[in-house]
């Protein structure tokens, strides 16, 4: 079996596993939304609704059907691109979350770009001389930032740059109808709070991969052969560390979307977390399920990407899988 065929077969197998995981996760999500306290029909009708009105609304919304039937209809429509309609205002869920989703993806995308640059720079610099002064300084700073909860980091950034220095807004508010990119200052603190955590975590993983690669027999042999340090690093060490590093950044791609929720809430960022909170408050299971499914798909997709990237850049992982 050729390398390309083996890689394709492994990719198909991983994709099947990812879809199965997403299916199980979607059922858990649907079941959790079903047991939330409150009634979307009663919330939509208001406090003056009679039991007969609520029962009629249940029938109109299809909430009187068996749970498994409703789940089957929902997941089938979701996989075809239809997330259903809000139980409160009857608007399509895709229409409700499209704007907030774009803002969340903007935040996650900027953080991902900065994280890759910072994690590679810090991780490689620390890993090339493990135990040295630079390694101790960089690793100590990274461990400290990873240990601090994101909401605490966000609070400190707000205190320093908004309250004390007054150079950045404390919340990410923009005029109605205007895009976030027209007000980049509203992005700075949320991006910083999210990037400090993710880059610190990723840099520790990159450092570990570089240290492990430096101890590989072929890298040691290249050193003993008298090759220049730069050539040893560029031609032998970094390619060996590429697989684990690719896996780290694949994980990052999935977890950043879900990890934005805390930061969005602290800075009142107009992303998915705002719609998620509103859906819980109004018992709008359709919106809650739609957002939850998208976040689950992002995490599962990120993990799948991590595996595929690692197998693509490191042939050893194809034979080990």
Characterize this entry briefly:
With 321 residues, the protein is mainly α.
Report what the structure shows.
The chain is mainly alpha-helical and 321 residues long. The chain has 13 helices and no strands. It has helices at residues 3-34, 40-45, 51-61, 67-79, 93-128, 133-147, 150-164, 185-214, 217-224, 229-266, 272-281, 285-313, 315-320. The longest helix has 38 residues, at 229-266. The chain is flat and about 85 Å long. The protein starts with a helix and ends with a helix.
What are the main properties of this structure?
78% helix, 13 helices, mainly alpha, 321 residues
Arithmetic mean pLDDT: 84
Largest sheet: none
Per the principal axes of the C-alpha atoms, what is the gross shape?
A: flat
Rg, Cα atoms, Å: 24 Å
pLDDT < 50 runs, ≥5 residues: none
Tally of alpha and pi helices = 13
Helix content percent band? over 70%
Q: How far is the N terminus from the C terminus?
A: 15 Å
**Number of DSSP strand runs:** 0
Q: How much of the polypeptide forms β-strand, as a percent range? A: under 5%
What would you call the structural class?
A: mainly alpha
The helix-strand sequence is HHHHHHHHHHHHH
Which SSEs are present, and which pair or pack?
Blueprint: H1 3-34, H2 40-45, H3 51-61, H4 67-79, H5 93-128, H6 133-147, H7 150-164, H8 185-214, H9 217-224, H10 229-266, H11 272-281, H12 285-313, H13 315-320
Helix pairs in contact: 1-12, 5-6, 5-8, 5-10, 5-11, 5-12, 6-8, 7-8, 8-10, 9-10, 10-12, 11-12
């Amino acid at each position: 079996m050729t390398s390309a065929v083996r890689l394709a077969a492994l990719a198909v197998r991983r994709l099947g596993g990812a879809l199965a995981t997403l299916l199980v996760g979607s059922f858990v999500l649907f079941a959790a939304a079903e047991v939330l306290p409150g009634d979307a029909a009663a919330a939509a009708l208001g406090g003056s609704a009679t039991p007969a009105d609520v029962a009629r609304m249940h029938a109109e919304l299809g909430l009187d059907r068996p749970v498994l039937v409703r789940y089957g209809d929902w997941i089938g429509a979701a996989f075809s691109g239809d997330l259903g309609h809000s139980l409160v205002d009857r608007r399509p869920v895709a229409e409700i979350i499209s704007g907030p989703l774009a803002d969340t993806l903007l935040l996650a995308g900027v953080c991902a770009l900065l994280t890759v640059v910072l994690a590679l720079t810090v991780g490689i610099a620390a890993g090339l001389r493990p135990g040295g002064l630079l390694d101790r300084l960089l690793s100590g700073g990274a461990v400290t930032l990873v240990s601090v909860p994101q909401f605490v980091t966000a609070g400190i950034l707000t205190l320093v740059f908004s309250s004390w220095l007054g150079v950045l807004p404390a919340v990410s508010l923009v005029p109605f109808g205007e895009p976030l990119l027209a007000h980049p200052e509203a992005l700075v603190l949320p991006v910083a709070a999210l990037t400090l955590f993710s880059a610190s975590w990723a840099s520790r993983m990159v450092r570990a991969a570089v240290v492990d690669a430096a101890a590989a027999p072929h890298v040691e042999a290249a050193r003993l052969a008298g090759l220049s340090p730069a050539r040893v690093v560029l031609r032998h060490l970094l390619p060996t560390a590429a697989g684990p590093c690719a896996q780290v950044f694949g994980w990052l791609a999935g977890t950043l979307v879900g990890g934005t929720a805390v930061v969005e809430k602290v800075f009142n960022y107009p992303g998915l977390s705002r719609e998620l909170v509103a859906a819980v408050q109004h018992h709008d299971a359709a919106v809650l399920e739609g957002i939850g499914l998208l976040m689950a798909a992002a995490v599962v997709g990120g993990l799948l990407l991590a595996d595929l990237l690692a197998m693509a850049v490191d042939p050893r992982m194809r034979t080990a899988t």
